[in-house]
Amino acid sequence: MTAPLVSIVVPTKNSAAILPRLLDSIRAQTHQPLEVIVVDNHSTDGEPELVRSHYPEARFFTQGPERNVQRNFGARQARGEFVMFFDSDMELRPGLVGDCVRLAGEGADAVIIPEEGGGGGYWAECQKLEKRCYFNDPFMEAANRFIRISAYRKVGGYSETMIAGEDFDLHDKLKAAGFKIARTEVALVHHEPAGFWSVVRKKFYYGSLMREYLARAGATGVKRFAPVKPAFLRQWRLLARDPLHAIGLLTMKTTQWAAGFLGLLWSFVRPAKRREATNKGA
């Protein structure tokens, strides 16, 4: 029996320094065949030349102005039975795609892929602890990275007017449409920037664009973005075993929530002007 083709869509913008780690990890996947679709938002750092010269197997396109537009554009070019979405600051373990395909063979239309944190330093360790708290949490994990292409198209893909919360929005649309969602135990590594204040600034920006998602998600959206999440209460033993980073996590999330809330308030005072979102981590 021929293995199904899986299309992997990667939205990028000025990611030349970090993109090879992701593309190399895609090359190392045990599942074949794969189709790699890089959709670049007019990069100026040499990224297009890098992809074309070092990763000739990738189909390269230029499209903007924002990552969800890029994702949907890439999905329209996809020739696979399944479509996957990864950001340029991610890294895949070799068996990840294969395990998602296995679950799809058992009837899943979309698969939740857990995330682990990457990098080093105190704040990076706090982020790693945060992601471990979200494992198997019904509110904080989303089936937005591996989807049967027919299901993706039926629900309309990613919302192109939503920048903050769009991953949860896609998960909720798939669930509401009755598609079967499974979960793999093979996590991806997300090498997010770990600088405290850079993350806080990003939360302010996303908060200023949160109104559309909160209007759709209601109480569920509030739970997902509350400073004290149900996941932290369920994982209190995990936090208690690492009090040093648990304190940092609480400090980080409280400050981020305050920044996001101020951004949300600011959006009522002055409609937020959307910048072209970077694709180095959401």
What does this structure look like?
The chain has 282 residues and is of the alpha/beta class. The chain has a domain at 6-194: Spore Coat Polysaccharide Biosynthesis Protein SpsA, Chain A (Alpha-Beta Complex). Helices cover 46% and strands 14% of the residues. It has 13 helices and ten strands. The chain has helices at residues 19-27, 47-54, 67-77, 96-105, 122-133, 149-154, 166-176, 196-207, 211-217, 219-225, 230-234, 236-240, 243-269; strands at residues 6-12, 34-40, 59-62, 82-85, 90-91, 110-112, 115-117, 146-148, 181-183, 188-190. The protein has a seven-stranded mixed sheet, sandwiched between helices. The longest helix is centred in the last third of the chain and has 27 residues, at 243-269. It starts with 5 loop residues before the first strand and ends in a 13-residue tail after the last helix.
Please give a handful of descriptors for the protein shown.
Spore Coat Polysaccharide Biosynthesis Protein SpsA, Chain A; three-stranded mixed beta sheet; globular; 46% helix; alpha/beta; seven-stranded mixed beta sheet; disordered C terminus; 282 residues; 14% strand
Q: Runs with pLDDT <50, length 5+?
A: 275-282
Order of helices and strands: EHEHEHEEHEEHEHHEEHHHHHH
Work out the radius of gyration: 18 Å
DSSP E strands, number: 10
What is the CATH topology classification name of the domain at 6-194?
Answer: Spore Coat Polysaccharide Biosynthesis Protein SpsA, Chain A
What's the quick description here?
Helices cover 46% and strands 14% of the residues. It is built from 13 helices and ten strands.
